[in-house]
Amino acid sequence: MPTPLIVVTGTGTEIGKTHFSVSLTLFAGKTQKFIAIKPIESGSQKAELSDSARLAAVSTLHVKHPLPCCYSFREPISPSQASRQENLPIDLNLIVQEIESIRKQADGVLVELPGGLFSPLTDKQLNVDLCVQLNPTRTLLIVPDQLGAIHDTIAVERASYRSGIALSGFIMNHPKDADRSTGTNADEIQRHCSIPYLGSVPRAQPHEIAKGLSELWRAIH
Q: For this structure, is 176 an active site residue?
């Protein structure tokens, strides 16, 4: 049986994917050799710790590979644009090969994709194309619990289905600034989408969030 591979994606960027991924890695790492990877990252010139470094810090398996971040770009723009600016082509096959190698050493692997599921990685390839190649056991969609969440989730579900991706479920992430729709979006999304609702993530530190992930973990295993 292949090692479980969880892909974490979202309806957009800066919506809490890394925060959730860190929390889930903390939970999973308590009982197994678990590694979380963000193979493509832009905006690495920021002063704070990079997303890939945050994920590596909480992983309980560390390997000597080009990963956890094969491609790290300085500018906070789409990977396809950053790749052209820095003259560093992104090779999805390389990423897939490295992750497959790591799966042989781990009990579980989490891969966080940059941006939204349909963000461009190259001139011709999107995040969803990488997801198809990875063939994950679970694909989780992070959705910010704010105005626009309903449309974005419906759109991503329909487009992902046509692209050959079966989303395993969606998770609502509490936004920094709540609005009138916050707390109501999950119910409305379930009226229009067939993907399971796996729960919501509060605004809290990852160690606190991890304490409440046992039910979600059971749902995806």
A: no
